[in-house]
Amino acid sequence: MVKRFERLERIRRLDPVADAHEIYRISVALEFPWDYARALELALYRTYAVPSIGRLLARTGEFTERTQKRYDDTVLLLDTIVEHGFAAEQGRTAIRRINQMHRSYDISDDDMRYVLSTFVVMPRRWIDAYGWRRLSGHEIAATVEYYRTLGRHMGIPGIPRTYEEFETLLDSYEEANFGWDEASREVSDATLDLVASWYPRPLAPLVRTATLALLDESLLRAFRYPRPGAATSALVRRAVRTRGRLVRLLPPRRTPHFARQNWEVKGYPHGYRAADLGTHPVPGLRGCPVRHRETSATDPVE
User: Fold this and answer.
1) Rounded to an integer, what is the distance from CA 199 to the centroid of its chain?
2) Domain positions in the chain
3) CA 217, CA 214: separation in Å to the nearest integer?
4) DSSP H helical ranges for 6-136
5) pLDDT tens sequence for the chain (302 residues)
6) Is 188 helix (H, G, I), strand (E, B) or coil?
7) Under a CB-based contact definition with an 8 Å cutoff, are residues 75 and 259 in contact?
């Protein structure tokens, strides 16, 4: 029987740089699978409030016309790397697919760094607020190293070196770039509709309100959503915090739970191949987001 804090003790015996993937995998798949799923959903959702990102997503049609598939593909590609690592063939294939998609569009280095920062910062903020315990220093350092490695595989320049640098980047970028854009709002609405579709139809308005109650003021303002009532916001946030406290009382998870096992992923009931996931070039939207070098047959990202 695994004790509630036994894995945290194990994490603290590992090296947060050399063992970054192992630590991150334990946190994501064993300690906080539900929290990481929600936090990374929120991380990606935040990026829509940057008009240059939201407009591009709207133009591709992926997030407005094929929302469930785009959600599934994003989750599964990132999940493949978590489950198998950067060196395994499955992880290499997922990174290659991510890079092939990004090369099809004009994406600035600044936007790429910002998106990467959301993956580092938002899970810590979510788990510290709603998880059954706060993230440890080892877990935070390992998360930084994990996403620095992913960023290097994606060819992103100027990646922050510490959590504090990632957090400063995220906050300053949002302050400078969050703003109203009609196309971004369309992507946001489609995403909220997707979340509501996961529940029985009569619950859709309640799910939408609860989701909005978890958003901060900057996001509500950027998308021009009405702020939920103070009582509603307090109730929803208290309910999520209560869930975390209840999880703390339960026996620890015995087996890993990866995002591919989440019931919200609905598009591949008969399985999938990482090489087949994701989007394909859209005419008129080409343009490589990062500078690429000549590669060999063993390069994991090309």
Assistant:
1) 21
2) 6-251
3) 10
4) 6-13, 20-26, 33-47, 51-60, 62-65, 67-84, 89-102, 109-130
5) 678 999 999 999 999 999 999 999 999 999 999 999 999 999 999 999 999 999 999 998 888 999 999 999 999 999 999 999 999 999 999 999 999 998 888 899 999 999 999 999 999 999 999 999 999 999 999 999 999 999 999 999 999 999 999 999 999 999 999 999 999 999 999 999 999 999 999 999 999 999 999 999 999 999 999 999 999 999 999 999 999 999 999 999 999 999 999 999 999 999 999 999 987 665 544 433 333 333 333 343 54
6) helix
7) yes
